[in-house]
Amino acid sequence: MQLIKKHSNLGLAYFLLVGTMGVFLRLFYIFPVPATYKFVVHAHSHVALLGWVYIALITLIYCLHFFEVKKSALYKRIIWFTNICIMGMLLSFPVQGYALFSIIFSTLFLIASYFLTWFFFKNIPEKRKKMLSWRCIKASLWYMIFSSIGPWAVGGIMATLGKATVWYKIAIYFYLHFQYNAWFIMALIGILFFIVEKSGLTIDRKKFKMFFLLLNLGVILSFFLSVLWIKPPVIYYILAGTGAILQLVAFLYFFRIIQKIWPDLKMIFSPIVQYLSKLCGILLIVKIGFQLISALPYFANLAFLYQDFVIGYLHWTFLGVVSLSLLAFLEHFKLIKLNWLILTLYHIGFIFSEILIFYKGMSLWLRWPRFAEQPLLLVFISALVPLAVGILLIRNYYPKSKV
Fold first, then answer.
1. pTM above 0.90, yes or no
2. Is residue 314 within a helix (H) or strand (E), and if so which, with residue range?
3. CA dist., res. 330 & res. 397, Å (int)
4. Span 371-393, average pLDDT
5. I want to staple 218 with a disulfide (CB 3.0 to 4.6 A). Which of 16, 246, 335, 391 is the partner?
6. Burial 231-270, CB ≥16 within 10 A → b, else e
7. Considering only CA atoms, which of 87, 219, 56 is closest in space to residue 146?
């Protein structure tokens, strides 16, 4: 358990770095900063996805299914190598962007993730293979590997066609889509279903089968939402819209499954975890709504013209749906200790920064009035998120602290 708690704290440390870099990026809009904005963005995004979310997810997966497997030494070696790769990206991207060392560390990280997936598939206890939660987690790991086609393709595209081609952006969107909408979401659902199954609650298998099938079809087809900005033939809009609708129907099945067992889950979850579960459900519904709207040609073009809408959506998913779900699960398994002060700071930082980001996009689109203090206000509001994570990290390292 001590190993798992250390890895949880490590994930939080990456989250703190991500939040701090996010605040630093806001400063570029206020005064000259002696750094390259694009390079810092690369570091910020890589540490966000591959540091905080990746480490937190694999820590939870190991805690759930592999804690009794007596091969922790191999797992630790893979994790150490993974963290060397993450630190290499953290140090190299701000200095050189996509160049020799950052590409080397990114490539090594992908290889490390393949080894970790192999470790999970090889060592999963036989009794766990039939669990519905493992089906979700297994699918999420396959999606993680599938998403890596994007980074591999980026190297070839840069060497042959260059960054200016649409294929460069499509490769990046391919990676982001299957990270955000498949690997992350499916793994989180698997963790939730594990709690349900280990608590002796019954999941309606017919509803689960429909949910699982529709979600996988929806995830694959909704990738085409990521290419509508190039104004492709009508068939791509149809495929994208079908994918978005399939995801909507899939989550209707999901919420019906949860609704049936929610009274029992309330007895298992603490008040904080109950609250976060409800909030994440609401945020997930809004996320699905965003995807549905973006299937319409007008709004697909709007997202391309005003990048603030895309940034707002990504932050909604990352800071909202994914990060709050991870915090809830880490709290449930007693790997971290949340309190209402930390959540209040986090919520204020998350909600009001989203309002400011979307307002900027709306002001450009609808010619709403803009105020000069917006960039500075966004800095202070955004700083509340790393402040909350920092307090949480200190409380985890020093449980008796009164911070």
1. yes
2. helix 307-315
3. 15
4. 93
5. 246
6. eeeeebbebbbbbbbbbbebbebbeebbeebeeebeebbe
7. 219
pLDDT tens figures, 158-212: 878 777 788 889 999 999 999 999 999 999 999 999 999 999 998 999 999 999 9
CB-based burial label for 43 (10 Å; 0-12, 13-18, 19+): buried
- List the structure tokens of 105: 């560390």
- Which amino acid appears at position 125 of this protein? P
Name residue, tokens 């990290």.
393
CA geometry: angle 336, 339, 343, nearest 5 deg: 100
Q: How far is CA 379 from CA 122, 368, 392, 397, in A?
A: 46, 21, 21, 27
Residue 189 exposure: Cα atoms within 13 Å on the Cβ side: 29
- The Cα diameter of the chain in Å comes to 61
Q: Where are the alpha helices (DSSP H) in 132-225?
A: 132-147, 149-160, 166-178, 185-198, 205-221
Burial classification of residue 167, based on how many CB atoms lie within 10 Å of its CB (0-12 exposed, 13-18 middle, 19 or more buried):
middle
Q: Are 50 and 116 in contact (CB under 8 A)?
A: no
Distance of CA 26 to the CA centre of its chain: 21
Q: In whole angstroms, give the CA distance from residue 157 to residue 169.
A: 10
Under 8 Å between Cβ of 15 and 330:
no
- Tens of pLDDT, residues 233-246: 999 999 999 999 99
Closest CA to 318 of 193, 176, 191, 147: 176
Taking a C-beta distance cutoff of 8 angstroms, is the pair 51, 14 a contact? yes
Give me 128's structure tokens.
Answer: 């766990």
Helix, strand and coil percent figures for the chain, each rounded to 5: 85, 0, 15
Confirm if 175 and 148 have CB atoms less than 8 A apart.
yes
